[in-house]
UniProtKB/TrEMBL annotation, chain A:
Superkingdom of origin: Eukaryota
Compositionally skewed regions (Polar residues) per UniProt: 315-324
Protein name, as recorded: SWR1-complex protein 4
GO molecular function terms attached to this record: transcription corepressor activity
Organism of origin: Neolentinus lepideus HHB14362 ss-1
UniProt cross-references to Gene3D superfamilies, sorted A to Z: Homeodomain-like
Key words of the record: Chromatin regulator, Nucleus, Transcription, Transcription regulation
TrEMBL record, chain B:
Nuclease found in the keyword field: no
Protein name: Protein AF-9 homolog
Organism encoding this protein: Neolentinus lepideus HHB14362 ss-1
InterPro entries: YEAST_sf, YEATS, YEATS_dom
Free-text function comment from the UniProt entry: Component of the SWR1 complex which mediates the ATP-dependent exchange of histone H2A for an H2A variant leading to transcriptional regulation of selected genes by chromatin remodeling. Component of the NuA4 histone acetyltransferase complex which is involved in transcriptional activation of selected genes principally by acetylation of nucleosomal histones H4 and H2A. The NuA4 complex is also involved in DNA repair. Yaf9 may also be required for viability in conditions in which the structural integrity of the spindle is compromised.
Amino acid sequence: MSGASAADVRSILSLPPPGTPSTSTQPPLKKAGSGRKPEGISRELYALIGPSVPSLLHSSKPRLKQKPNLGGSRKVKWERRAFKNVARKDSLELQHWVKADDPEEDYAFAKYNVQSDIYTYSQDEYNRLLEDSEWTKEETDYLFDTVREYDLRWFIIHDRYEYPHGPERSLEDLKERYYSVCRKLVRNRPWPGDEASKSQLLNSFQFDKEREVTRKKYLASLASRTPAQIAEEEALFIEVKRLEQTERRFKKDREELLRTLAGVESGLEGLAVDDDGPMGNGELLKKKKKHGSDWEPMSAGPSVISLGTPMPKKGQQSTKSSVPSPEEDILHCIHRTSAPVPNNLPVTKNAHTPVYLRSVKIPVPKPAGLAPKVIAILAELGINHLKLVMPTKENCERLESLLDAASALVDLKRAVDRVEQEISTTRERIDSSKSTSASVAGDTAGTPMDVDQDETGTERDADGEKEDESVRAESVVSMRSAWGRKSSRRSMSISSVDTSTPVATRATKRMKK
Amino acid sequence: MAERVRQRGISIFRPIVYGNTATVLTQEERNALSTPDHTHKWTVAVRSAASAPDSDIVGGADDLSYFIKRVTFKLHETYANPTRNVDKPPFEVSETGWGEFDIQIRITFVPESGEKAISFFHHLKLHPWTATTEPEIPPLEEALKIGPVHSWQYDEIVFNDPFQSFLQTLLAHPPTPLPKTKRRPIPFHATNPGSLEASKGGVPEFTALMEKEEAERLDVAKQAVIAETDKWRNILIEKEKELKKLKKQLEA
């Protein structure tokens, strides 16, 4: 027995068998001649480890008493240089020491001044996307201003959040509103990058209020346990462990009994000994809890087994329809549009999309009213909206999203025009009201402007043209509605556009007086 | 019966090119014609998108007759029997002429596809490409020097939910992929005037690079549009703020 193992060791180490002593004595001699004690190893150590010294020791001698090398002979020149921090808005100039040969660069720490990009939205976007029964636009604006001011530091935001006459908002309320607005904006604005980065950004704006509240509740309850509760919990845990162990022992015993008495393997899977250790048992335990039933080994058995069984079934199914692999699909130019529906469904003629040329599906700018402007924008960028050089699926999609982005831009510009128009109208009205109030200062003192101003105005202008009066009446209506309800802004803007010129002329007329 | 079952959830396409190549006739060639006023000879064709190596035509690496039964070219009425049916490859018509016109191309598919024919137009291009959209026709001698004129459009024929038997046919004929690199000139396309220089000097070839290049062009344009949108949105928000302030002022 021992002889055989010695031979094994020899063969493993590829040493010659002991029967040939002439060769076995030769190598040690040779080694003794060639392998002198290397420097840096004590004689005693060398005697112990012999010539099989790790090669590392050879190369690095310990040089403990050497002087440290302090950067050589060259002197480094430092100089005090003024710098500006790019991250600062004021042009404060400070000085710091830099190596003289370092190039002039932007302040290296400026990049750490990260500004979070807080979204803003226009009135139109708010009306279209962001309406919420719980929130007014003013409060949303206030929230966004606060978020901007405190740079997304939610606890501070929540602390400082004080919207006059607004309902009490919890931290989660604020977060939910903010993130839902961001999500809606991201989803609805044209996106410059690809879909992956968009969904990534959307994920970063994900906020589940319910979950957050539950999480905090759990944490609170976890932190507020009394020592007695903690002790009880621990005791219970130990109890469970003990039960598990007895369970296992019991199963093993039964298995053995069956084997010795009946002489058969018990074919009951439920009795199989679990060797997974505590983890596996924990899983089993969970399962038990989920079932809501007491410990039933027979019912737990199949559920464990079933984990293994679906594989062959799936295999049978997949052999019928060949497994799609992405490479093959590219080779054969296949796009899988959706999960294949069972084949036995009757195909109605209408459901089928007939064959087409890809380029036919290049979309037209919508809506038609904006089309010329959209086309003009694209033309400016050197893009033909009708034709592509390579109308592949991806490029057609790109063109489509480009068209969407362009029409959004056109929309936006129109909104700007509209607001500009409104601004100029309002300005004129302010001017006119100023002159009115200046001329009738005595009458209007202390009375609300919106009604009285115009009444006095009409009185004063009673000798003016009739047309002018009717127009002004309209403008009164529009002004009242503007102050009364925000929602009717659109209608006001239209009517106010009409009135703008007469108001102006009226103002100048009054000036003449 | 099983043959007539559609494979649902699949859209399978075949890349094709269609277009024409035109050469100016020399005086001797013109004299030999029965119609001496014809100045060009041209070939209009429908082919697979990839070019065969060392071939002197655009595209045509694969035989498309496994899914195309017939290609009909409808020429100008002044030609003798203007509707030309081509039932076997190569799907092309060669003619001589003096003017450019729109050719209607109609592709009929093999019966097992169960698909109706599709038709589209190609503008027969005889005169050399210019960077400007306004066509200026150089004298014939110059055009002769410039060499053959190529006008080709890439496109994809998309079959949705094909019949299983037809799908098998298609799978049996995977198209030659477009070359990854540029080996020959780029086919000129009026949509991308920048490619004029790169299109010169020989028989052009469609490559996968062209797709990428166009994708980049579209992306750049989109980014420009979005940058502009952001700018205008900020303007809008500023203006709205201003308006609000003014309104308050008016109210006060």
